[in-house]
Design goal:
By secondary structure, this protein is α+β, with helices and mostly antiparallel strands. It folds into four domains: 105 residues, Orthogonal Bundle (Helix Hairpins); 134 residues, HSP40/DNAj peptide-binding domain, CATH 2.60.260; 74 residues, Urease metallochaperone UreE, N-terminal domain (HSP40/DNAj peptide-binding domain); 36 residues, no CATH class. Helices cover 28% and strands 25% of the residues. Strands 10-11-15-14 form a four-stranded mixed β-sheet. Helix 2 packs antiparallel against helix 3 and helix 3 packs across helix 5. The longest helix is centred in the C-terminal third of the chain and has 18 residues.
């Protein structure tokens, strides 16, 4: 059975460019992969045919010979190709063909071709630090000093990992690629180089201070500016203050996560503050003035209207928390809690009983409630 034209196999024209040939191969390889065509007995042979065609057409020398002589270029030693002599036709060098496309499809994810070379100097990891501040500190803003346990560049080797600050050498196992390839059936599998751990370089004489890593563990004191208006969950990024890079690589970043502690007087809701203030029964009934605290440490005088009930709220404009990115401040809300007196003396009890006799018309909510209760009971009886 005669072989099909390689261009027909890939579904492209004879004048196709290298990129067009690669795109055509990628499409066919995905379409005919045996793992995706378990119900097609011809899928494997078609898959091999596609790889054979691509192995020929991706190589400029092979392609030139094929364009001139067709399949005869690879029969009987006709035509010249690689310096090593002859072309490998027949079944096609699938591992070479698929490896090219594997690099193209997954190269960026795996670190790219020759990724080991770019990984010689690896960026340090980002760090997280949880910082707790008081509500007063969140209101005014503050500068705090924190101690961060981290990896820092080794001073003995200037971060190179080599004794005396010497230069690493190219890994002989992977030739600086950081990866090694192994043939498994039809597939070429890439793995991290076991000799250099993917770095692409090795250090023959590691630094004694850091063991060849180029960094050591050390606590650092950092001054952090906490802006006014922060709230729980606010994140502050300090660029370059994270873990030191490996072998001279750039440092990571430090992320400070803010937690605002609960306050004994104020509750916060975004930029607004709430304060529950107890008032005496007489003050609530007769009205009067009270002093309430504000988050800035000051005092505000609030007028209590006569007849105020528990739960009544009054607003103090602009006495809340500042907005984190400007835009003014929130408000403070005073919630009244009318307090029932305890430990009454005999005289107080006597006066309250006398007051109760005279207060039938002074409790509108109670009168309304019990009128509704009476109506409910009457309806149940009927």
């Amino acid at each position: 059975m005669s072989k099909r034209d390689y261009y027909d196999v890939l579904g492209t024209s004879k004048g196709a460019s290298a990129d067009e040939i690669k795109k055509a191969y990628r499409k066919k390889a995905k379409e005919l992969h045996p793992d995706r065509n378990a119900d097609n007995p011809d899928a494997e042979s078609q898959f091999k045919e596609v790889n054979e065609a691509y192995d020929c057409l991706k190589d400029p020398d092979k392609k030139a010979a094929y364009d001139r002589y067709g399949h005869a270029a690879f029969e009987g030693g006709m035509g010249g190709g690689h310096p090593g002599g002859g072309f490998r036709g027949g079944q096609g060098d699938f591992s070479s063909a698929f490896s090219d496309v594997f690099d193209d499809l997954f190269g960026d994810f795996m670190g790219g071709r020759g990724g080991g070379g770019r990984q010689r100097a690896t960026r340090g990891a980002d760090l997280r630090y949880n910082l707790r501040v008081t509500l007063e500190e969140a209101f005014s803003g503050i500068q705090k000093t924190i101690n961060v346990p981290s990896s820092v560049a080794c001073t003995a080797c200037d971060g190179s990992g080599a004794e005396g600050g010497g230069e690493p050498t190219t890994c002989p196992t992977c030739s600086g690629m950081g990866k090694v390839r192994a043939q498994q059936g039809f597939f070429t599998v890439e793995r991290t180089c076991p000799t250099c751990s993917g770095m692409g370089q090795i250090i023959k004489n590691p630094c004694k201070a850091c063991g060849g890593h180029g960094r050591v563990q050390k606590d650092r004191a950092l001054s952090v500016n906490i802006p006014a208006g922060v709230e729980t969950g606010t994140r502050i990024r300090l660029s370059g203050e994270g873990e030191a890079g490996l072998r001279g690589g750039p440092s990571g970043d430090l992320y400070i996560f803010i937690e605002v502690a609960r306050h004994e007087l104020f509750e916060r809701e975004e930029t607004n503050l709430f304060c529950r203030v107890p008032v005496s029964m007489t003050t609530a009934a007769l009205g009067g003035d009270i002093e309430v605290p504000t988050i800035d440490g000051g005092r505000s005088r609030v007028k209590i209207p006569s007849g105020s009930q528990s739960g009544r709220q009054m607003r103090l404009r602009g006495k809340g928390m500042p907005a984190l990115r400007g835009g003014g401040s929130g408000d403070m809300f005073i919630e009244l809690a009318v307090e029932t007196p305890v430990n009454l003396s005999s005289k107080q009890k006597e006066l309250l009983r006398e007051f109760e006799k005279l207060s039938d018309d002074n409790n509108p909510e109670s009168s309304t409630f019990f009128r509704k209760v009476k109506g409910f009971w009457d309806s149940m009886k009927s």
